[in-house]
Amino acid sequence: MLRKGWAGWPLVVAVTLTALGTGFSPDMVQARKANSDTGISTVVIAELPVQGRNMVKLIYQGGPFKYDKDGSMFGNRERLLPANHRSYYREYTVQTPGERSRGARRIVCGGWVPTVPDTCYYTDDHYASFRRIVQ
């Protein structure tokens, strides 16, 4: 039995296509409607700030990441994202121009394979709210 990712398509297929160098790209994944049960709105990837779009590319490439915290476990303590296993979500910094620290902007991705996330979310207010990233 294939385990399906949260977005509904088998992770095994994505990992295999990526590993075989078939030209699989995250851009080939069609956007899905937001889960009405979660109440989370969506943001089209083209509407993200340029730093957010660049971070999405780096996530699928596996880095390199600027901050040590990038790719680390995100605990979902705010409980704003769909409930899942403790190590399911990872967080990534979206740089803010002029900001000396990591700032408030993040991308949080869920999935068992970091370079093939099931779904990703964007926050520009340090986890106070999230929007699911769609194509």
From TrEMBL:
One Pfam family linked to the record: Ribonuclease
Molecular-function GO terms, alphabetical: hydrolase activity; RNA binding; RNA endonuclease activity
InterPro entries according to UniProt: N1-like, Ribonuclease/ribotoxin
Presence of keyword Nuclease: yes
Spans traversing the lipid bilayer: none
Keywords: Hydrolase, Nuclease
Origin superkingdom: Bacteria
Record SUPFAM superfamilies: Microbial ribonucleases
Name of the protein in question: Uncharacterized protein
